[in-house]
Amino acid sequence: MSRALRRDLTLAGISLAGGLIxxxxxxxxxxxxxxxxxxxxxxxxxxxxxxxxxLRRVATRTGFALGTVAVAADLALGSSLGTLLIYTQVLYDTxxxxxxxxxxxxxxxxxxxxxxxxxxxxxxxxxxxxxxxAVPATLLLVLPVVTAISVRQYRDQAAAERARAEQTARLVExxxxxxxxxxxxxxxxxxxxxxxxxxxxxxxxxxxALSLHKRDPDAVEQALKVIRENSVQGLAEMRQxxxxxxxGASDDEPIRARLAELDxxxxxxxxxxLTVRLETTGEPRPLPVGVDLAAYxxxxxxxxxxxxxxxxxxxxxxxYRTGVVSLTVENPINGRxxxxxxxxxxxxxxxxxxxxxxxxxxxxxGVRWRVHAELPTVAEEAA
Length: 383
What we know:
Elements: H1 3-24, H2 43-54, H3 60-77, H4 81-97, H5 100-125, H6 134-212, H7 217-245, H8 262-271, E1 275-281, H9 289-309, E2 313-321, E3 324-332, H10 344-355, E4 359-364, E5 368-376, H11 378-382
Parallel strand pairs: 1-2
Antiparallel strand pairs: 2-3, 3-5, 4-5
Helix pairs in contact: 1-2, 1-4, 2-3, 2-4, 3-4, 4-5, 4-6, 5-6, 6-7, 6-9, 8-9, 9-10
């Protein structure tokens, strides 16, 4: 048995006991259409209305019908106060636990009966004092319904607020998960750009050094210098990224990679054995931090791919136009690579452009590979 049902049965039992006590005290009839009716005849309607009270949750309509029949029988005998009081609770529960259609019907009926009593009362009494007949009708039929409607509205409003709070909590959790996923993606992209590029160059030259260590000592020395330079640069950029991820690690902002350092990037690529031709059009200007970093990383990744998959040559074109910086890297391809790749570099470049609402495309025709990106710089103009 559920806790709610136990409470309903307890309430019904207490109501029955209260009605019987009123009978024992002689509080039975409120008026006497049948003065000769024995008192015990009022007990069955009282029991019936108490049973209706116990059914308020499990069978609301059945309880209301049973209570209405019981109070009609009670009124026919003379109307006992206890039965009428318990019936007001039945009406209240019917409106509270029943359907919205039920309380609308009961409210209309209650108002109609009260209005009818207000009209018929003075006619029967022959005086305006007959309006008093509408008072018990209002107290019995209208007041419990209005009270239940008010409580029901508060209950429905509370349920709606709970549902809204739960939905908000779910949205917050979803936003948190999306933020975590976006941060993990960003960190993976940064790690790839910081580590993979330098390690790729180091791996290529390590392979060359292993194959030439007996025949060409000078080439081996040059390869080792490139490996050392890329290792040192990779460590420096890794420290910068760690400083960015640490909160409050330093009062000084770490130096970020930017397009203004493109000459140094190209110098390292040339030191790694890649012939690079740089062409800049337009007037170089400061760029927003996100655009600056993305442009640098796109060129860096493109040069790394040219070193891994190309024939030793790459053409870089940077164009500063109104509201846009355009990047183009082209290189011949040979279809072979000393270092295997998983395609994460292309994905990272595409994601960087997409995050800035820019355009990115990359592809080849079997002879040349071309990477092209256009990054908007609207933020710098708004500033």
